[in-house]
Specification:
Distance between the termini: 49 Å
Structural class: alpha+beta
Order of helices and strands: EEEEHHHEEEHHH
Number of helices: 6
Shape: globular
Number of strands: 7
Helix content: 40-55%
Radius of gyration: 17 Å
Strand order of the largest sheet: 1-2-3-4-7-6-5
Largest sheet: 7 strands, antiparallel
Amino acid sequence: MMVECINGCGGMAATHYEGVEIDVCGCCSGVWLDFGELTQIVEIRGAAWSENVVEKVLTSLGGKGVPVKERERELTCRVCNNALPPSNYQSNSGIIVNACPDGHGVWLDAGELEKLQIFMERWQDIAARDADKHQHLLRQIEVDYADKKSKGLREGPAYFEVINIFINRVISLME
C-alpha cells in the first residue's frame, strides 16, 4: 500500500534505514516513522558520521519552544487523521517533531531524522561515559522504565518521557 506524504506531495517510498523500513517522500524528503521505529533506529546505531559533521549538527541545535511557522502547519496522522502537534524534541533540542498523540507515528521534515539520531546518540555516549558516576540515577531510570514497560508503554511518546527524564537528570547533574 502506497503511503501518502503528510505535506501533500503524493506517494512516499518505503526505504530501509539502518535495517528499519521507513517511509520517505521523494519530493520534500520528509520521513514518516511508525510507532517504535525511531527507538529502533537510535538503538541500532548503524550510521556513522564524522566528528566534524556531529559537531556541526550539535552546534546548530538548541532553542526552546516551537517556531510560529511550525505551529501554523496543519499536519495530520496518516493512521487516525488526528492533528500532529509540533513539539521541540527534549524541549530544547531545536528539532521539531510532529508526533501522533495516539502513538501511531512521528513526522520528521527533511534532515531531522539524522539530526535527532546524532542528538540522541551523543546523549547515549555521555550517559555511558558517566555511568559509574551516576549509578543511582541509572537505577532509578531502570525502575521508571520497568514501570512504563509493565503498563505496555515501552515505545512511542510515553517511552520518550522516560528518556526525557533521564536526559534532564543528567543535565541537572552536569550543571
